[in-house]
């Protein structure tokens, strides 16, 4: 477990809520740290594109969702930049495979399967 410096007052809303939820004001937060479970110091030392270069492709999507949820615009920009670099020079089919994007036919087939299961499923009336 590592301690991260508390975010400054202009940090994203979710992080500010975390700090204020611990009863810290801006001055106290600047002098203290927040414990972050399941993250070691080596992870925190990596930053920016260095961190993203070491990140596995399958984890990038999860990081994008987390950055969006935490409202960390800078991290979200870095993630999008990495995704753009990954996509550069790729054909549409390669992009579908890389980013696991289904085709319209696959979407229609899945939707029909859901409708069929819903229609066939026995109704439970009490």
UniProtKB/TrEMBL annotation:
Entry GO CC: cytoplasm; nucleus
GO-annotated molecular function: cullin family protein binding
GO biological process, one term: SCF-dependent proteasomal ubiquitin-dependent protein catabolic process
Record InterPro entries: SKP1, SKP1-like_dim_sf, SKP1/BTB/POZ_sf, Skp1_comp_dimer
Stretches assigned to the SKP1 component dimerisation domain: 73-117
Origin superkingdom: Eukaryota
Stated name of the protein: Protein CBG00481
